[in-house]
Amino acid sequence: MSDRPDDAFFTLHADLPREGPGETADVAWAAETAGLRPDARILDAASGPGGDIGALLRAAPTGHVTAIDLHAPFIEAARARWGADPRVTLMTGDMTEPSGPFDFIWCAGAVYFLGIEAALTAWAPRLAPGGVIAFSEPCLFTDTPTDGAIAFWEGYARLTDAAGIAAQATAAGYETLATRAIGDIGWESYFRPMEARIAKLRPGADAALAAVLDQAEAEVALWRAHRAETGYLLSLVRPA
């Protein structure tokens, strides 16, 4: 096993059902609030292994989902489940790459790689008329967060509250239609499989992998201790 930290990270994340917090109810809420048509063209941006593809297809049963992720093994994992479905296109690449047009862009927990303004600006020409975007972003749910709540995000410079997220969307030329905090079910749907994977990998883990496992366990503990103060906010936005 390689000692490279990124290799250890992907060893932990291999075979997880999803790459971030969320649940099918989040997709259903966004689709219903947006008034998504059954034949909608959807981009699942930074899809990971495809944990949300099923919910997206249920939201648009006669539509089409284009799922893209930079990490090829995640796309291969999605292909094992969805590769035979003609309603799904799977791609390895940058999440702003597909040209669309799309009626709905879904991005679970990955906008922070670019920043809200940069991501929404890049997606604007890829939206069909009337198209909407749903994205989740780190958010503070209190005006007085503890040090632990801040530490959970490991120095994320753009960490803000719901008003700050909406302001960044406005700066990119969008209006916020509705918001919803990702609930405990969504977080545990991500963390519990990870904890099972950690337990499986612990025996015989080298130093690099052990460090990654320790960090993941600390992340889980921090969220459980501070989940009332911080988490992901799911925002539904459209060009103003």
Automatic annotation (TrEMBL):
Keywords: Methyltransferase, Transferase, Ubiquinone
GO biological process, one term: methylation
Gene3D superfamilies according to UniProt: Vaccinia Virus protein VP39 (3.40.50.150)
UniProt xrefs under InterPro entries: Methyltransf_25, SAM-dependent_MTases_sf
Highest taxon above the source species: Bacteria
Pfam family name, one: Methyltransf_25
Statement: the UniProt record of this protein carries the keyword Methyltransferase: yes
Domain Methyltransferase intervals: 42-131
Family annotation (CDD domains): AdoMet_MTases
Recorded GO MF terms: methyltransferase activity
Keyword Methyltransferase: yes
Segment forming the signal sequence: none
Protein's recorded name: Ubiquinone/menaquinone biosynthesis methyltransferase
